[in-house]
Structures are given as C-alpha cells and as structure tokens.
Write a structure and sequence with these properties.
The protein contains two helices and four strands, in the order ββββαα. The chain is of the alpha+beta class. The protein has a single domain, classed as Roll (Ribosomal Protein L24e, Chain: T), CATH 2.30.170. Strand 3 and strand 4 form a beta hairpin.
Length: 75
C-alpha cells in the first residue's frame, strides 16, 4: 500500500459523482515517491518513501526537523 514513512499518510476513501449525482465508492491514492535524501547532520543518504507534499516541506525545513516534528527518528 502507498504510505508515507514519516507522516503515515495513505489512501483515502472518496466518491465518484456522476452527472446524475449518483455516488459510487473509490480510493484516492497519495502520490508516494521513493527518494534517496542526503542528511548532512548524519553525513549519509537515507532512502524513504514520501509523499510529494512531504518532499516540499522537507525542502523548506530540512529532513531531521520534519521527522522530529512528526515523531520519527532517522538514526
């Protein structure tokens, strides 16, 4: 299953709505990417499965700060 390793975001239940307003169940998957990120504080690369929203936030605040905010250790 597509799931972010830091935030735990995963697929959500949603509905298709037709022109006649009939609703049927479907899944909305998160956009999960497998990325190898450099962590200067650890002096090494870390491979993680992250959503694209996570990657944008990591660009702004840094990987360790983002992981700490969500209660994840990367040691």
């Amino acid at each position: 299953m597509a799931r972010s390793e830091i935030t735990g975001k995963r697929r959500m239940s949603a509905q298709n709505v037709s022109h006649s307003n009939i609703k049927t169940k479907r899944w909305q998957n998160v956009n999960v990417q497998r990325r190898r990120l450099w962590v200067p504080e650890l002096g090494r690369h870390v491979t993680l499965k992250l959503t694209t929203g996570d990657l944008r936030s990591i660009d702004k605040v840094g990987l360790l700060a983002y992981a700490k905010k969500h209660g994840v250790t990367l040691a």
